[in-house]
Amino acid sequence: MTTEQKVLRLSIAVTVLLAGAGILFGLLSGSFAIVFDGIYSLVDASMTMVTLLVSNLIAASTSAGPRRGKLAERFTMGFWHLEPMVLGLNATLLMGAAIYALINAVGSLMTGGRDLAFDHAIVYTAVTVVVAAGMAVFATRANRTVRSDFLALDAKSWIMAAALTAALLVAFVFGHLIQGTRLQWVSPYIDPAVLALVCLVVIPIPVGTMRQALADVLLVTPPDLKRHVDAVASDTVRRHGFASYRAYVARVGRGRQIELFFIVPSGWPPRMLEEWDKIRDEVGAAIGGEGPDRWLTIVFTSDLEWAE
């Protein structure tokens, strides 16, 4: 599993299996918390499928070959812009599902809770904790090599799933142990109460992803990258005697878009194109990050209007 696409395919398959099992065991046990866990997983799996599609498009558009040529004809600016859109939509749907479940949980608490079969619930949650924890470790290790925002979000989702299902497991074990005791009256409230707590934990988690996705969609300039580009451009102006420069920087998903305009003093003697290309090579090497996900444009002009 050395590519983003392979890891995502495995994640989708495991998520769909757990989702189906969650809905089945939730209905058998009468636990809306488990049903929500299954539905939540289905939403996550559907968005991971969209993520995989976008990942394939980005990989195809930045690689060589006939497929790349066909895509480049229709999408000359690439597919990086789809990545923050998908991440933002994913985070929004997950938050929406959690808010809806929280409302249902509060309503159930206000109407006396619900009885459930704790044995079925314990079996499902125990298996799910093991599987989710294993997938979290797997995705995290795979992303050390791949370094993908998609895999980072997927690993975070598995960690969250393992932690929340572990909370469900503890609650269900407690509910099973108090059967036949003076605390049995608490049993109907365990499922909606733990569901409400799970939702309160889940709702804020995608906020960071939503914020970053919105920043990417709006082409908000990353401060660190802008400082680095400014430092490289300022040094280039000083070494080559240019009048000034203008830098435009944006982060779009995994893509880094950089446009540099160097203002050349009027009346300079002409130079060969190879000389200007050599300066471009120097600037590109100093900026770093060369690869399919860097979009770097370097322009030399004596007319400031072309740079603003």
Can you tell me about this structure?
69% of the residues lie in helices and 8% in strands. It has 308 residues and is mainly alpha-helical. The chain folds into 2 domains: 214 residues, Alpha-lytic protease prodomain-like, CATH 1.20.1510.10; 85 residues, Alpha-Beta Plaits. A 3-stranded mixed sheet has the order 1-2-3. Helix 10 links the parallel strand 2 and strand 3. Helix 6 runs antiparallel to helix 7 and helix 9 packs antiparallel against helix 10. It is elongated and about 95 Å long.
In the CATH hierarchy, what is the superfamily of the largest domain? Cation efflux protein transmembrane domain
Low-confidence regions: none
> What is the CATH T-level topology of the largest domain?
Alpha-lytic protease prodomain-like
Give the N-to-C terminal Cα separation: 46 Å
CATH class of the largest domain: Mainly Alpha
Strand order of the largest sheet: 1-2-3
Which sheet architecture does the biggest sheet show?
Answer: 3 strands, mixed
Number of helices: 10
Q: Report the helical percentage.
A: 55-70%
Shape: elongated
Shape-level CATH architecture of the largest domain:
Up-down Bundle
Summarize the structure.
This is Cation transporter. The chain has helices at 4-29, 32-61, 66-74, 82-110, 118-146, 149-177, 187-202, 207-217, 223-240, 273-287; strands at residues 244-252, 255-263, 294-301.
